[in-house]
Amino acid sequence: MSTAAAPREQWTGQVGFILSAIGSAVGLGNIWRFPGVAYENGGGAFLIPYLVALLTAGIPILFLDYAIGHRFRGSAPTSLRRLGGPRGRWLESLGWFQVAIAFVIGLYYTVVIAWAVSYFVFSFDLRWGDDPAGFFSGDYLQTGDPGLSFEFVPGVLIPLALVWIVTIAVLAAGVAKGLQRVNVVFLPLLVVAFLILVVRALFLEGAGVGLDALFTPNWAALGDPNVWIAAYSQIFFSLSIAFGIMITYASYRRRRSNLTAPGLVVAFANSSFEILAGIGVFATLGFFAVQENVAIGELEGLTGVGLSFITFPAIVSEMPGGALFGCLFFGSLAMAGFTSLVSVLQVVSAAVQEKFALSRRAAALGVGIVSAVLSVLLFSTTTGLLALDVTDQWANNIGIVASAVLGSVLIVWVLRRAGELRSHLNAVSTFQVGRVWVALVGVVAPVVLGYMLIQRIVTLISEGYGGLPGWYLLAFGWGSIAFIVVATIVLSLLAWRRSPDEFTPWPPYPPASTRREERAS
């Protein structure tokens, strides 16, 4: 017979929550994805669809996650099961779908942080030499042909193991002493380090060339639907929404806590950091273009792994005081990645803790050790880079987008719970949301994201990805999605050690005033 549940952990206050939520949102994508995406999709003109996407999908879905987590006080599966009520307990499966996505992302996200830690050390003596591309894929990663290799690379394995040890320790320490404390320390450090990097970049020869390339508007791009899709995609992946993070984080807030105003702070802080990253990255790329006597558009590696671990080391080698610049860049990359990583894994740890009635430390150790072993086996070998690239494409572009579309449709149209969630937001928040919010969550978001999802699936099926063999994409790409689906089914069918259904949401819905009016009529 199970004992009574322990009191739910809480953030120490609003500032702790806001810093932790910003720390989750500000991650690798802010630094290595946004600048390149903006440049390739209209430059300065891209900021228009970007802002529209933020207001019509990013913030509304962020508020949806906050409302679910705060009202139903649990991890993603717990909260969604309670939201579904007696007739909709099957909604728990959507929560496990989100947990499985977070689990998969955590496996490879950790590896990129390990690379950043390695390159932070390499920056002191510019170890990549005159051939950063050859050093990264050859000397450092020892990249092999597509396949599943168990030939481990010590230079990746050792920092990866260290990152996992620190991550497990943070999760085991809990919400206030672990997650919040890391963000309170790392987020200000990240902002200061990146501001120093940006200021230094702005004084490099050619910085203006890079900023002109980034911000010169190509107004014709606004007529291209793909530019708008790119904007929604960037906002969506950047805000840590629709795969359990913000549901879990909001569940640790006190009952009487403002939700919408802090949500706006988190959303606009995240976007501000993206624009800051764009300025720093493109000012630096402008310097490199001038040194190489080429146009910005002729440079290779303007996004992702190529930008961070090939292009930037090449730039660092050519600039005055490059070692310090490299330390700042890779240190920022590691801190931004780590604050996001702990939020991703907290989704999994909290769900396992509640489903199996485990202690916080037992859940953190169990999830952490299993994740660490799989992460090491899959991504610290000579085939790790290719596996990471393919898994990331499918988990993000299919897994998370499908989660958002399913969530919007099921909650708004099938279960008709949008009114209750809107009422909850307005009952505890200063910034009130109206029927427009319901329309954005229930119509605009699923239509735009549904189009994105279908377009991406068709492209991946018809064109493949990265020129890789079909069997490899089937194993690591579609295989990741198959794993997520199977894990969802299995975890949904397992019995709860302690029933989550004996729960009364607060405040009551409909509100007391509405119930009195109904009785009077």
UniProtKB/TrEMBL annotation:
Source organism, top-level taxon: Bacteria
Keywords noted in UniProt: Membrane, Transmembrane, Transmembrane helix, Transport
Keyword Cell inner membrane part of the UniProt annotation: no
GO cellular component: membrane
Segments crossing the lipid bilayer: 12-32, 44-64, 96-122, 152-173, 185-207, 227-252, 264-290, 323-352, 364-388, 394-415, 436-458, 470-496
Pfam families: SNF (PF00209)
Membrane-related topology note: Multi-pass membrane protein
Places the protein is found: Membrane
CDD domains: SLC6sbd_u1
NCBIfam families the UniProt entry points to: Na_transp
Protein name per the record: Sodium-dependent transporter
